[in-house]
Amino acid sequence: MKLPNILLTGTPRVGKTTLGKELASRSGLKYVNVGDLAQEGQLYDGYDEEYGCPILDEDRVVDELESQMSEGGVIVDYHGCDFFPEHLFHIVFVLRTDNSILYKRLETRGYNAKKLQDNIQCEIFQILYEEARASYREEIVHQLPSNEPEQLEDNNINQISKWIEQWVKDHNS
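The chain above was modelled as a monomer; its predicted structure follows.
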């Protein structure tokens, strides 16, 4: 049976991981967090002193993902999307969070002032949504609100689950 590959993207702390794990448990698709994948395989290309984090080796990440995604049925979670080849994904969901809510979430995570400010600006200027629209066919890129826990349950999980069911029907008949 053919299954879709899904990308969940958005600014850090918008709820990609919570959504991805819940979707995977309900749908039976495999969940892959790119940050965890990179850490497990040491898929880094140096260290960014300014942000205090490792620099992702995007080519090695893509190589690793392509081997896992060739059969379909994978949910990928990452805060960037412009380096993934378009053919990997059947649909892209960009999670969006209100700035005041996002600020509190980032602050709780202990981000330094520069990282906090840059991430809030990223959300204000819709950087990741624009990145997704520039990287993938417009008809496969969708924005989802991710402010309150109820939105996760009622809107996002149900909406994506219905999309998965329909995709499976359309591609397996």
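The longest strand covers residues 91-96.
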